[in-house]
Specification:
A: mainly beta, five-stranded antiparallel beta sheet, three-stranded antiparallel beta sheet, 8 strands, B: alpha/beta, nine-stranded mixed beta sheet
Chain lengths: 137, 384
Amino acid sequence: MSEYKKPIPVITSETAQYWDSAQKHDLHIQKCCNCNRFYFYPRDNCPFCFSNKVEWTRVTGKGKIYSFTVSYRYTSEGFRNEIPYNIAIVELEEGIRMMTNIVGCENDDLRIGMPVEIIYEDITDTVTLPKFKPTIP
Amino acid sequence: MNDLSQKVAIVGVAESDLGYVPDKTALQLQAQAAERALDDAGLGKNDIDGLFCANRSEIEGCLMGEYLGIRPGYFETTNSGGSSFESFVGHAACAIRAGLCHTALICYGSTALSNRKNNSPPTMSILPQDPQSQFEDPYGGWLIAAYALAAQRHMFQYGTTSEQLAEIAVSTRKWASLNPVAQMRDPLNIQDVLNSTIISTPLHQRDCCLVNDGGGAIILTSLERARNLNKTPVLILGFGEHYAHRGISNMPDLTTTAAKVSGEQALRRAGLTVKDIDVLELYDSFTITVLLQLEDLGFCAKGEGGSFVEGQRLAPGGLLPANTSGGGLSYLHTGMFGIFLLIEAARQLRRECGPRQVPDASIALCNGIGGMLASSATVILGRE
């Protein structure tokens, strides 16, 4: 694998399961067993009711673009050769939102509300980034 | 706050040298602003017993106290980004009212432009394992992109246009043309904004604030004491603060900022409504930041900000004078702009603003926004 120059997540004990599941191309997020709400990013305690009884649940991987931007500047060197590149916030069917990049779509064709589904990009031997592509109806 | 309203006053304000100041450090700029603000008030350094600082270094307040030779009995060195200084005004008013200090100095300085020219690394950053580093940075998320995400969503939900955002850049430039220390004073029209380089869609370069060096300082004391000092006291009438997220992907609604809560708190505590506001000083890191605050503070309904700013409503001679210094978009922006909103509002209420003076200005609202549309603090100021 060629050298990967973009920022690589520094994984902690409470996010390890998320990144492990991404690496298996089977993304899991957390759901609170007390108030039954999904939440993101991973945390030991539910940010709604603060219960520590939370479980990991496989995502459907389907969602919609909540917002996006096409950036013509970069602050992280690894993006230098990719400008303009897109940054999106996707809202999953579970109701949580995450920042991501949309692949398999021209930047000019991006639209808010566009249905998207998860894909996995193995950026190193040990880290995989979830990204999204347009859902073909 | 009802117990606080009209009990504490701003008695001194000043800027340091502004613009590109390569021969001064941020500490020098702060000290220069502090000295000028003390002169403005007619006070000396030894009158200061409360110190409020926020900046890019750790434990900034101790550093400033050491540098200035002030050993305060009450201090705060909290950094909530660009809104820190509006928060400080509220907190200082509480401390003065509670008798914890008598006279407070709020100061700030930055060499953002010199740092950029020198390629200096940022002095404060988020830890690599923090949520933003783990879940946003790998995708190339960054500050302007965060505001662009909000602008794009507002356009989608409410039909807001780039032309409407440009109205804000244009009206702000008109104010800057009346301010001799504003950095960008040449005429600007809507087409110029639309023709400027795209930074992150839908934001153009002229939708974005400047990057400069500069410092500011503010001095507050009790109204009783203020009445015996040099300048017309500028009363603290109301205050509010709020935040709802840190990273932009955790913002509950990309079209609604924490100003909705902080503004409602401040107006209620002052016993005022938006109709009472003569001068508005809104954090203008970006044009979209202004538009969102206008809606969230209640100057227009949610979603109507675009049509509200049309026809140069915010410009000199417009129905709602806003960002009368020329704002972060055209006067100056140093990274944490909030202190300059307060300085300009105080001068407007003291009626010292010459060609840009808003006639009979009696009540001003300042709203600071920090981080990625994260924190908001609102201060309402008035004359006795």
